[in-house]
Amino acid sequence: MGDRGWSVKSGLGALLLCMAAPVWPQTGSVNPSEKLAMYVGQYRSADEPDIVDAILIKDGRLFIESERMDSMALTPQPGPDRFSVEDSPMRVTFVRDAAGLTTSSTSPRSGGRVFQMERFSDRPLQLNHFREYTRDEAMIPVRDGVKLHVVILRPKESEKTGDPLPILMERTPYGVDEESSYSVNSSKPELAASGYIFVFGDIRGRYKSEGTFVMNRPVVEHKTKNDVDETTDTNDTIDWLLKNLPNNNGRVGVIGISYPGFLAMMAGIDHHPAVKAISPQAPMTNIWIGDDFFHNGAFRETYGFDYVQQLEAQKTDVRVDSSEDTFNFFLKNVNFAGAARSAGMSDLPTAKEFLNQPEYTEFWQAMAVEPHLTKVEVPTLEVGGWWDQEDMWGTQAEYRALEPHDENHEVFLVLGPWNHGGWVPTTQHLGALNFGSATGDTYRKTIEAPFFEKYLKDRSGFDLKDTASFRTGVNQWERYEAWPPKEGFKGAKLYLDSNHSLGFTAPLGEGKVEYVADPSNPVPYRHRPIQSTYGQGSKWRTWLVEDQRFVSGRKDLANFTTPALDHDVTVTGDVAADLFAATTGSDGDWIVKLIDVYPDDAPDGMGGYQLMIADEILRGRYRNSFEKPEPVKPGEVVEYRWSLHGADHTFLKGHRIMVEVQSSWFPLYDRNPQTYVPNIMAAPSNTYKPQTISIYGSAKYPSHLEFETPE
Question: Which CATH code of 1.10.10.10, 1.10.357.10, 3.40.50.970, 2.40.128.50 fits the domain covering 11-121?
């Protein structure tokens, strides 16, 4: 939500280029072009082989370019084989081997890092597909007199040719002043190369737009002419663009990630007739049920604390950056009321609702998007990642709401091995994981770009029928007729046993596993120190793929594990937890994690790695109703059932499957005092008490996970 997914703010100074430098010929008879020729070729990143730079000669000068980087002249600098880019901090040093052949190149990245590029070809394939865009700004009046700020980027050559182009729009609360020809080419290379009239807009009350900002402004039902919401602001903006942008072809697409994903979905509700395609990507959909601020009633404390200050304390988005371990900060402030008071944020609009309306009240229900998705108004491409640390839920929830109404087969879903917005950069990696290919590039080139080409330009090439899913473990793309897939799959159950084992056969005996959960010593959700969400050096973006061995040995949780698998096991579709458990307290949190345990001899430093595949929390007081919380009867065995979200993963032969159950995930989620209080946000310190937790794995109480597996 608060993360743009992939930022181009750092500019050229952030590029890491490593290239080998050859030695200049030792004769004065060689002309400059022949000297430069020894550098010419293609260079790939040692860490990311899909990132390729080309060095070539144009008009007697050396140039560097890549798919995302414009062609830039390299100017010789003092010293052998050293070059710079004019008006840029980029420096390039070439390196050669003992025979004098150029083998690689290096250039320092901002922060002192160096990106090494290895030469793999002496043929300078032209990689640059940049289109130069001209930039304009406008203030667009909407129906209540407020003016909204936009940046307009138009392919420069289209001004001469007059070719009609569709409009591709992105609306955002994060500011659009830095949008430029460079930003659109580097962040949307395929779409930029194709050519659109790009429009980037500040939403109401943010940055240069007038009016009052309202977090996830609810859709107004049965609007009058004086009502405004994000659907009306979108439609009014499109009206103005169609009338005032010359040579548009009358078609509009809307795209966005996170909060802009929520805004993209707004373009598909009461839509403007010109909107022909939308792509809500990792969209905020229901921030109480499963997205940013709550998950099944458990409050996402660090995220709510940081993000509300970021968006509601000023018109820009200055981010919270504390040097203190947030684990210690929230522990010493006892509850969210204390933390908010300490930060002076208690009166910010959304913080007030956190404090006063922790249940799923009409306030939060009005902000939910999925109840409005009762018909498919425009072709919709939903995109999400398996390890999205912010908005994993919304992508699948919107697809699930729209799919029953998809009579014309115009709703599509893509699920990949990404964190929040991780399909934007070119990378094979997520944290320690290597997927063997740049999966984001595959998605953008074969699905996203063809999707907009089809609906905005009438071009062929888009062949997705319904769902594209990247199956992790075996690292391959699958295509399904629906999500979850039905044909060729069967239901399966994975049972927890009281002897800490895990298997596909229900336990026959009686028994339980016990541990003591102490709120004064909660289980951290990632390695400490835990930085502010978007603070300097924060590990927030990759915490869902962190090795879980840092907590799995604790005594205040329970692990259930299979033996080493003698064959591959694939888990596909929605993973549901069905837990029979008891607590000596009158409230409690339940966290279940499905984990892939790598064998000790796994290659590439992955020996023994514990990778979360699916995971989720349920706050016990909401086991029967999100609207009406109620205490738990101490000592009573209760069945808790909830979704751990979707997955498409193969546990490989030799790996083990683990299910981990715990009662805190701090400070991402606030501590449950484990004593029922009316409002956990202000729970007194004396209500936080240790309690004994019992997880049953028996014939009478068969705790298990449910999912689909190939037949």
Answer: 2.40.128.50
- pLDDT at residue 6, as a whole number: 42
What is the spatial distance between Cα 629 and Cα 353, in angstroms, rounded to a whole number?
17
Provide the token pair at 193.
């190369």
Over the stretch 144-187, which tens digit does the pLDDT of each residue have? 999 999 999 999 988 788 899 999 999 999 999 999 999 999 99
Q: Is the pLDDT higher at 163 or at 236? A: 236
Using DSSP, state whether 104 is helix, strand or coil. strand
Q: Which letter, b or e, does each residue of 280-294 get, where b requires 16 or more Cβ atoms within 10 Å of its Cβ?
A: bbbbbbbbbbbbbbb
pLDDT of residue 108: 55
Omega within 30 of 0 (cis) for the link into 524: no
Cα 702 from Cα 188, distance rounded (Å): 49
**d(Cα 91, Cα 520) in Å, to the nearest integer?**
51
* Higher pLDDT among residues 684 and 111, named by residue: 684
Task: Give phi and psi for 471, each to the nearest 5.
Answer: -85, 110
Residue 220 near residue 214 (C-beta atoms within 8 A):
no
Distance CA 129, CA 54 (A): 12
Q: Is 7 exposed, middle or buried (0-12, 13-18, 19+ CB in 10 A)?
A: middle
Do β-strands 467-471 and 411-416 pair in parallel, antiparallel, or remain unpaired?
parallel
Fold of 133-286+370-427+436-471: Rossmann fold (3.40.50)
* Residue range 486-504, pLDDT digits in tens: 999 999 999 999 999 999 9
Report whether pLDDT(29) > 60: no
Question: Angle between the 349-356 and 301-312 helix axes, to the nearest 10 degrees?
Answer: 150
CB atoms within 10 A of CB 435: 18
How far apart CA 373 and CA 269 sit, in angstroms, is 7
- Map out the domains of the chain as residue ranges: 11-121, 133-286+370-427+436-471, 490-710
Give 270's pLDDT tier (boundaries 50, 70, 90): very high
Distance CA 699, CA 512 (A): 11
CA dihedral defined by 302, 401, 617, 338, rounded to 10 degrees? 30
Please tell me what DSSP assigns to residue 213: -
Residue 182 — φ and ψ, nearest 5°? -65, -45
Q: Which of the 8 DSSP states describes residue 268?
A: T
Q: What is the mean pLDDT of the chain?
A: 93
Lookup result for tokens 């930060």: 343
pLDDT at 22 over 70: no
Per DSSP (E only), the strands in 112-229 are 114-121, 133-141, 147-155, 165-172, 197-202
Confidence at residue 179, expressed as pLDDT on a 0 to 100 scale: 97
> Measured between alpha carbons, how far is 522 from 137 in angstroms, rounded to an integer?
50
Report the distance separating Cα 129 and Cα 69, nearest Å.
9
Q: What top-level class would CATH report for the domain 490-710? A: mainly beta
- Asked if residue 44 has pLDDT above 70, the reply is yes
Separation CA 260–CA 3 (nearest Å): 11
Element (DSSP H or E) covering residue 559: strand 557-561
Beta-ladder partners of 408: none
Helix, strand, or coil (residue 568)? coil
| Residue pointed to by tokens 């430098």 | 21
| Residues 6+ away with beta carbon under 8 Å from 52 | 42, 43, 44, 45, 66, 67, 127
Residue carrying the six token digits 């981990």:
660
Cβ-Cβ contacts under 8 Å for 428 (sequence gap 6 or more): 48, 49, 50, 434, 435, 436, 437, 438, 439
Q: Is 224 helix (H, G, I), strand (E, B) or coil?
A: coil
DSSP state of 26: S
Distance of CA 262 to the CA centre of its chain: 13
- Assign 1 a pLDDT band (cuts: 50, 70, 90): low
Instruction: Report residue 113's pLDDT band, with 50, 70 and 90 as the boundaries.
Output: low
- The tokens describing 76, both together, are 């010789």
